[in-house]
Amino acid sequence: MSVTVVNHPLVQHKLTIMRNKETSTAGFRRLLREISLLLGYEVTRDLELTTTRIETPLQPMDAPTLEGKKLVFASVLRAGNGLLEGLLDLVPAARVAHVGLYRDHETLEAVEYFFKAPSDLGDRLVIVVDPMLATANSAIAAIDKLKSRGATNLRYLCLLAAPEGIERFTKAHPDVPVFTAAIDEKLNEKGYIVPGLGDAGDRMYGTK
Ligand code: URA
């Protein structure tokens, strides 16, 4: 089991602005995209490199390049898309999976309504993205589904996590490392992370 808190000053600064309830929808979306670049830097830190023969203006060189086609970003809809866009800026050759889950507001259980992924998940590193690891119901369901479709090498990237969510997630999927910008105090009785930032999807898209 592994949990990495990306404690970089830029990440923490941007996260504080995102938490502020006065931050606009446009500002929130822009910051989420920016922060995803910084989180993406950490989650891809140990990606395998190959070399490509190129010629610089001075001489030939075997230069390092990413095996970009071996990566899948799996976005848990809909808030996952906010992290996905920045990650695709970093690794444009990556493939994308979408896992549509909504949270039943009574039971807080994850209910699947959409799933689409590359067929060769077993050959790829799958980085699952969703900003809020709260109860972990949807995170666990998303990983269950991806594993049932063959994924064996997975990572989970979020922006904020609750201690309760981390505990449940790492118990259910101890083989999946978690990366987050912060671990907050707790979950409230409605399943929100506190102090948190509210509903990430609503804040991204200006819905209520
Ligand atoms: N999902 C959110 O968007 N916010 C929370 O605090 C918990 C789950």
What report would you give on this structure?
The chain has 208 residues and is of the alpha/beta class. It has a single domain (3-48, 67-205), classed as Rossmann fold (3-Layer(aba) Sandwich), CATH 3.40.50.2020. 33% of the residues lie in helices and 30% in strands. The chain is built from 6 helices and 14 strands. The protein has helices at residues 9-19, 25-43, 80-90, 137-148, 163-172, 200-205; strands at residues 3-5, 49-55, 60-66, 71-77, 95-103, 110-116, 125-129, 132-133, 153-157, 160-161, 178-180, 182-183, 186-187, 193-194. The strands form 4 sheets. The protein has a 7-stranded mixed sheet. The longest helix has 19 residues, at 25-43. The protein is globular, with a radius of gyration of 17 Å. The structure holds uracil. Uracil (URA) is lined by residues 79, 132, 134, 191-193, 196, 199-201. The site of uracil has 10 residues, from helix 6.
